[in-house]
Amino acid sequence: MDLIFCGTPEFAVPTLEKLVATGFALKLVVTQPDRPSGRGMTMTASPVKQAALRHGLPVTQPERIKNNPEFRSLLESLRPAAIVVVGYGRIIPGWMLALPPRGNINLHASLLPRYRGAAPVQWSIAGGDAVTGVSTMRIDAGLDTGPVLLQQPEAIREDDTSVTLWPRLAGIGAALMVETLRGLESGTVRPIPQDSSQATLAPILRKEDGRIDFARDAVEICNRLRGFQPWPGAHTSFRGNQLAWMQARPAQTAPALAPGEIALDGSRLLAGCGGGSAVEIAELHPAAKRRMTAIQFISGYRPQAGEVFGQQAGA
């Protein structure tokens, strides 16, 4: 089966490499243009481009694809049986959807129709789900609304963050994409329409999503902290300065605390949350400072009982 592969981030690399390893004919790799990165703002190729070049695959990096006659002519000349799309970062235009007979096949990091959108892994952890997974689907004109081809569930571990869960889903998804393409070739895989009444959304993350809302209970706050790694993380303020929480867990025992209220219990740093719950904070990162343990924070800042996280300077 002749394929075109469209992808950009690290999440897409295992699928690209699995397709190469299993003998699919990759006629072209399409990825985002090189972007400035790092402190020196050095022009850097996407992870997919780097992987494609390692394998000697032809690469193109159009700035736009919808109204790009040169790009369209190139794809039409290659006559792919299918276009595989994994985290490409562009809306696939109608002419491209209609081009390959097997369709544009997407790997999505959720069990659709749950968590349609840009950040499914982050929101699945933030939502407290015990299970997530990956889906292959045929792209249509909607936002992750196309018919599902295959799915594979994966448990969310208690200590998972989005940083640890993404690579597992990428590996599972790579194998599922190969199974999907082979099934489409043999006729054993058929598209199944999604039940849109069961759909949930996973919108692109904003910095504000990382702000700790102490009206939420401790479990939800800790789930959001794990889900929103590495960005936007979980952040609040202390004595008017920005403070990020790096690790925290629901406190098994704690005194009665108002939301955001600080308490010390020996070496334990506690904060009140909604519903009478509390979190125990294990690691913090004050603005313009190094990361520190709770004990280091207590020793350096000497928080007083009754002080409150999230209070603005002068309040």
Characterization of this structure:
With 315 residues, the protein is an alpha/beta fold. The protein is built from 8 helices and 15 strands. The strands form 3 sheets. The protein has a 7-stranded mixed beta sheet. Helix 1 links the parallel strand 1 and strand 2. Helix 1 packs parallel to helix 6. It is elongated. It starts with a strand and ends in a 14-residue tail after the last helix. The mean pLDDT is 97.
Give me some keywords for this one.
315 residues; alpha/beta; 7-stranded mixed beta sheet; 8 helices; 15 strands; 26% strand
Strand order of the largest sheet: 5-2-1-6-7-8-9
Number of helices: 8
Element string (H = helix, E = strand): EHEEEHEHEHEHEEHHEEEEEEH
Sheet with the most strands, sense and barrel status = 7 strands, mixed
Radius of gyration: 23 Å
Structural class: alpha/beta
Unreliable runs, pLDDT <50, ≥5 residues? none
> What percentage of residues falls in helices of 4 or more residues?
25-40%
